[in-house]
Write a structure and sequence with these properties.
Layout lengths: L21 H7 L2 H7 L11 H10 L7 E6 L5 E5 H17 L7 E6 L3 H12 L3 E6 L4 H10 L2 E6 L1 H8 L11 E4 L10 E3 H7 L14 E6 L9 E5 L3 H10 L8 E4 L6 H13 L3 E5 L5 H10 L4 E4 L1 H10 L3 H4 L7 E4 L6 H10 L4 E5 L9 E2 L13 E2 L5 E6 L4 E3 L5 E7 L8 E2 L3 H6 L1 E2 L2 E10 L5 E6 L4 E3 L2 E3 L1 H9 L4 E11 L3 E10 L7 H15 L7 E4 L13 H9 L14
Parallel strand pairs: 1-11, 3-4, 3-5, 5-6, 6-7, 10-11, 10-12, 12-13, 13-14, 27-28
Antiparallel strand pairs: 1-2, 8-9, 9-20, 14-15, 15-16, 17-18, 17-19, 19-22, 21-22, 22-23, 24-25, 26-27
The site of adenosine-5'-triphosphate (ATP) has 25 residues, from strand 14, strand 22 and strand 23.
Length: about 575
């Protein structure tokens, strides 16, 4: 499909991107030089994520600069400076120590987007616990699964969530010794503590113990889009990646106000909703409320957000709501908008340019990679529909692999996206699944399980997840390509495309479509869309069937669950639903 490349422009030209010459920065790049931009623990005691994110700034002239600006559900706000954060995270680390939580033990948070979550995450890292965020909307079973597999020793949560989600499971959670409630004043039986009381009594001084860059820091569960969520373990060295990508992909400058809409219950909301912005000493906006288009536009306006990190599902929702945001709100400060999590339709990239100001810069990574790997960097032209180019220090190729060899394919060829091992935030293991972990690596490559191609200019194009690719009449059809084509029709808000077993063709391409508000399902619209897709894609690739849906099933992190569309269509078992959006 021909989408004209977009030359990126930067507001009024006042801010020069951190990365101006892609080739020059890539060839001169070394992780050692990134390490030099960070401080390291005093007296050569190692490298700790929380020290770099908080204490380093608290010891500098950034100490009184606002680190977190939080907006509550009911209009309340709270601003925490880097110095405030240092004091609170020190206290939290002392609370863990006081309760006897050892280094290397897992500490979970089960909290909405509230200040205590940020303090718990960073305080845990200071105390050298392994921080594992749990999405607050999880029901008891997903909570149990993650806490038991992660062998959580402590959980930080609210009274309500504790009663509903954790208390009924305590008998089964043999590792769980302590519960810290953020909204209770008095302790209770069973090592259920009031976090505010504990914090009050804890010292404001804390010396971060020696931290080896290889010490475990984070445990993130994957989204469960293709099956049972996997637990990916990350180490403190990942901070190099968080910092480097904050610098080059998110283009953070000291005066930026940054907002990441991803929930910190997931890897994006942790790597980029907590760590990366703080590493750069910027002001990080946190909104406790759920999606609401008007609220979001008001936040962009009133907080004067300059760099915004969001997701395709959110952008599609904004597109569906419609309106003329750029005229209605003052978005003139917005310099860069990035998106991750799912393929971003070219339509959405261009929508950003028309309606927000900046086009949307897609980028690609996964829980396992710990940080952004491939991105439409601010200084590079955007090819709408492309994920962009590998970050400095990241080597990506398209490969075809056997059990013991990965052959690098030529530009234009489709294959599996692979990353040369050794980047700092590479996951160091799948929790309790060593064999599965080993299987991800062939030669020096980490195999991502995503299919893609690289073009002559070095841009990467997402084709689909290996599990989702449809084989029809001898063709390999990418669901994303079909979904993107359908999305170009005014009626279509969202599309999920799957293969349905078919005697003649092997698999038949079927699309599930959610319509924009002003359209209603009809046979005529179905025929129009089938024809529209056929003209765009050709008969071999176009869907043969279209079903209308009010909404498509999505993971709690907002990804379309094609496996579920397919299972429901075929009346097959639905598999693990712990991350389904509406399940609780
Ligand atoms: P699971 O591994 O449990 O099935 P998941 O893969 O969705 O879930 P995540 O690690 O949250 O879990 O998501 C990473 C995946 O999301 C990538 O492997 C890719 O398939 C998809 N993805 C992320 N960003 C993009 C993007 N920009 N374009 C296309 N796909 C993307
Ligand atoms: Mg995955």
């Amino acid at each position: 499909m021909d989408w004209t490349p977009i030359r990126t422009q930067h507001g009024n030209g006042a801010v020069e991107p951190n990365l101006r010459d892609y080739d020059a920065v890539r060839s001169a790049f070394s992780w050692a030089s990134i390490r030099d931009e960070l401080a390291g623990l005093p007296e050569g005691r190692g490298l700790n994520i929380a020290y770099e994110a908080v204490d380093r700034h608290a010891a500098s002239d950034r100490a009184d600069y606002v680190a977190l600006r939080w907006r509550g559900n009911d209009g309340e706000t709270l601003a925490l400076t880097y110095c405030d954060l240092k004091v609170r995270t020190n206290r939290f680390a002392n609370v863990l120590r006081g309760l006897g939580i050892d280094e290397g033990e897992t500490v979970c948070s089960l909290l909405g987007r509230m200040p205590s979550l940020y303090v718990a995450a960073l305080g845990t890292l200071k105390a050298k616990g392994v921080y594992c965020p749990l999405f607050a909307a999880f029901g008891p079973e997903p909570v149990y699964q993650r806490m038991s597999r992660g062998e959580a020793a402590a959980v930080v949560t609210t009274e309500r969530l504790y009663e509903k989600r954790v208390a009924p499971l305590r008998d089964r959670l043999s590792h769980l010794r302590h519960v810290l409630l953020v909204d209770t004043d008095a302790p209770r039986d069973g090592n259920v503590w009031s976090l505010p009381r504990q914090m009050e009594q804890a010292s404001t001084d804390f010396v971060i113990p020696p931290t080896d860059p290889e010490d475990h820091a984070l445990l993130h569960f994957t989204s469960g889009t293709t099956g049972m969520p996997k637990g990916a373990l990350h180490v403190h060295e990942a901070v190099l990646m968080h910092y480097m990508t904050g610098k080059y992909a998110l283009d953070l400058h000291p005066d930026d106000t940054f907002w990441c809409t991803a929930d910190p219950g997931w890897v994006t909301g942790t790597s980029y909703g907590i760590i990366a912005p703080l590493l750069h000493g910027v002001t990080n906006v946190v909104d406790a409320a759920d999606f609401d288009a008007e609220r979001w536009y008001r936040i962009l306006e009133s907080e004067q957000v300059t760099v915004w990190y969001t997701a395709p599902t959110a952008i599609r929702m904004l597109m569906r709501v419609g309106g003329t945001p750029k005229e209605t709100y003052d978005l003139s400060r917005l310099r860069l908008v990035c998106s991750v999590g799912e393929p971003l339709n070219p339509e959405a990239v261009v929508w950003g340019q028309k309606n927000l100001g900046p086009p949307i810069h897609d980028n690609w990574w996964q829980t396992e990679t710990g940080g952004i790997m491939i991105a439409n960097l601010p200084a590079l032209d955007i090819h709408p529909g492309s994920m962009g180019r590998p970050l400095p220090g990241v080597e990506a190729e398209i490969v075809k692999s056997t059990d013991d060899h990965a052959e690098v394919l030529s530009p234009g060829e489709e294959g599996e996206l692979a990353l040369r091992t050794g980047w700092p935030s590479m996951f160091r293991g799948y929790l309790h699944e060593e064999e599965r972990y080993q299987k991800c690596f062939v030669d020096d490559w980490y195999l991502t399980g995503d299919l893609a191609r690289k073009d002559e200019d070095g841009y990467f194009w997402f084709v689909g997840r290996a599990d989702d690719i449809i084989k029809t009449s001898g063709h390999m059809v990418s669901p994303f390509e079909v979904e993107s084509a359908l999305m170009e029709h005014d009626a279509v808000a969202e599309a999920g495309v799957v293969g349905i077993p078919d005697e003649m063709s092997g698999e038949l391409v079927k699309a599930f479509v959610a319509l924009n508000p002003e359209y209603t399902p009809s046979d005529e619209l179905r025929r129009t869309l089938l024809g529209f897709a056929r003209t765009k894609l050709g008969a071999a690739v176009a869907p043969k069937a279209i079903a209308f849906k009010d909404d498509l099933p999505k993971t709690k992190s907002g990804k379309i669950m094609r496996r579920l569309l397919r299972a429901r269509e075929l009346g097959e078992p639905e598999g693990d639903l712990s991350t389904l959006e509406t399940a609780s």
